Structure of C4-dicarboxylate ABC transporter substrate-binding protein:
Amino acid sequence: MKTQAVMAAALVSTLAVAGPVSAQDKSDWPGNFTVGTASQGGTYFAYGAGWANFVAENLGISGGAEITGGPMQNMALVHTGDLNFGLTTMGPARESMEGNSPLAPGMKMDNVCAMFPMYETPFSVTALTSSGIKSISDIPAGATIGFGPAGSTSDTYFPKMMETLGVDFERRNGSWSDLGGQLQDGLIDVVAFAAGVPIPAVSQLEVQTDVNIIGMTDEELKKITDSYPVSEFVIPASTYQSLEKDSRVVSMWNFAVANCDVSESLVYEMTKLTMENNDKMVSIHKAARTSIPENYTKNNVLPWHAGAARWFNENGYTIEADKIKQ
């Protein structure tokens, strides 16, 4: 697998916000860490790379973000220990935990533990204004739709959603940046994004050309929420220049995860740093507005890492013992 790592400096800089971590606390820490994200041009990469830098600067440990195929592949890489940390979505996490991952059919990926809530992933459709596509029902039969990297959240769920809504299409995979370029060049008709908003590739597109960011009708929302593990989500009009009003779509929650065998004290310090500095997280990516402790309840799939659970329980958020990986 060809990957690219984006490594962060291990120095505690003037941006540091956390208190010092004792040498004794670091005795079982790895020499460095890597976070599995997704393709460039997507929110996972921006969020994960920024978070890795933030942790490295404040905890004095070298770390970075790795480009991967997204949530499904991150579950596999973290489960096997190839990566210490990753970002995942609850749908792919459930499938992986139950042994239904297309990457490793039959393998129950049960050595992946939750750390903290990130944000919701909205499922939204973008087309060029010149295409005349203003709604999902406008997508012509046989249209080529880009669904993101193979095995990503979008690629796992969006084609099924489109079929449920009666759309006839040809499937295209690729990074969000590549698909955005293909859309702009007229090589594909639509991109079906599943990523935290604002999506960097969409923001870039609307600077360069006129686009339609397409929501769902009441009937479409009901069909999708009745059939998939998603809920209604509103993309505020202020998110993109191209939106004249709020856009109603569906979404799925994302969590940062760790291999369950990673040092408890390291995961505790990472969780503490993240949950106690939301302003810094929002400066990394606006989607982190919901990376707050209160959203820990959105995890109903993964066991909790003992280090993360310790921070939540110390700060008034109850995680029962049977939900914590021992």
